[in-house]
Amino acid sequence: MSGFFALATEAAEPGTGLGGPAALRKQLLVEFAEAYPGKALRAGRSRHYELVAAESVVEQFDGKKLRVWSYNGQVPGPILRVRVGEELRVTLRNELPQPTTIHWHGVRVPNAMDGVPGVTQSAIEPGETFEYRFIPKDAGTFWFHPHVRTSEQVERGLYGVLIVEDAQPLPYTRDEVWVLDDWRLGPDGEVDPHFVTRHDLAHDGRWGRNITVNGSSKAELVLHPGERIRLRLVNTSNGRVFRPDFSGLDARIIAVDGMHTRHPIAAEEFNLAPGNRLDLDISIPSGLSSEPVRITDRFTRQAFTLATIRVDESKSVEPPVFEPPANPRVPRWELAPKMPIDVLYALNARRGGPYGIEWTINDRVWGEHEATKLIAGKWTRVRFRNDSPRLHPMHLHGQFFKVIARNSIPVDEPYFRDTVLLSRDESVDVAMVPIDWGRWVMHCHILEHAEAGMMTLVEVEGEGGGKSKGEGTEH
Q1: Does residue 321 form part of some domain?
Q2: pLDDT-derived band of residue 1, with 50, 70 and 90 as boundaries?
Q3: 210 closest CA partner among 192, 231, 234, 233
Q4: 399-428 pLDDT, tens per residue?
């Protein structure tokens, strides 16, 4: 990792005396060392999947037939699994009536594999195929979805989960995935075809009343005494935020957005915004009540049951004993509040555009911005300032960041993430060390807000504008 650290230490910066910005920036960079991989570790193996994006009829809501757009005829799409360091090859065939792509949400891929038309590739036209090919750098929970007419294509059902397993996975009795979504149906019981409406734009995007976990409105997970499971949650909704309550269970958060926490933390009061993922370590002790444990969502004023966990005492298993996964190298960055703001993103709205409302970043919409230049290997402080009364989960492609302040009050989130939720009139400061070169988009993951302009470009390059021929482009 020494290559990208050298970039930061060589850069000239005002205030190079003891305690000046340059010295502090160097110290913050030292604390970042080996927080996560700089390069993909090649395992020499490859896994190949084929996906077909097409119109289909699937069973949703526990028995109801629903016309959707899907990958391989199922919603959620198939779970793709690969070990860290293995090459992943995914061939996508587009049988939709619209162009499409696949964006690998949260995965640090070579720039050309990021799936953003007009930035990293051309859209895949109906009848065409495209092969995505990369070696994941990070083990964790990720997902994939289109980046063309995203608010419509995701709402119609085009999304799936990518699990990048550790080279030596821990011996959980089970590895479970819960894909959370909400659906807005029309009077005919089919997906409401009115997308990007003025109402949705003026509010927090498209929210549906039909909540599903893995396509079921009555999801139930049956466990046995002694089991210890890894439960992965993925919020694939267009706009809805979830806050699942796991009280009554021995549950700890071990990863956020695919990245292991510094230490396990209590599974409470976590807002799972669109695009966010959460990994939980859950143990089922002997003697736990056989009464079903209802996992309740508490983000809105009216709580509702997301899913149920039930203990089946007909058999028990020997509890596996091991330390939960953790990343003790997640930096605290206690000096960060002394550093200046390098980049400010002010989030707001204005009248205009094809929908009557445009969501803006620094008073501009997608297509009006010049790319924000970030220097590879340089510790950088970014402020998101929400000047609007609506929610904005801001997502950055190709990089991870760490929240260091909310409303100018320092915080130490013990994990990195790629998506952070801003409440109304809130500011959030994040710190990052860009590693992966190339042109990446940054946008609100309320898909209607992004569609109406709240998206911009970030370009990671070398000091002096040097272009990489390595990490950002290799397969």
Answers
A1: no
A2: very low
A3: 192
A4: 999 999 999 999 999 999 999 999 999 999
Interaxial angle between packed helices 21-32 and 2-10, expressed in degrees from 0 to 180 and rounded to the nearest 10: 170
Domain holding 298, by residue range, is: 174-311
Beta bridge partners of residue 421, listed in sequence order? 393
- Residues 298 and 381 occupy one common structural domain: no
> Which residues, in sequence order, are CB contacts of 170 under 8 Å at separation 6+?
230, 322, 324, 325
- pTM for this model (two decimals): 0.93
For residue 9, is pLDDT > 90? no
3-state secondary structure of 199: helix
Q: How confident is the model at residue 464 (pLDDT cuts 50, 70, 90)?
A: low
- CB of 388 within 8 A of CB of 446? no
Tokens 């470009």 locate to: 457
Nearest residue to 240 via CA among 270, 272, 201, 218: 272
C-alpha of 244 from chain center: 17
Distance from C-alpha of 238 to C-alpha of 327, rounded to nearest angstrom: 31
Residue 322 forms part of a structural domain = no
Question: In whole angstroms, what is the distance from residue 455 CA to residue 147 CA?
Answer: 12
What tokens were used for 142?
A: 């990720």
Residue 336 and residue 448 share a domain: yes
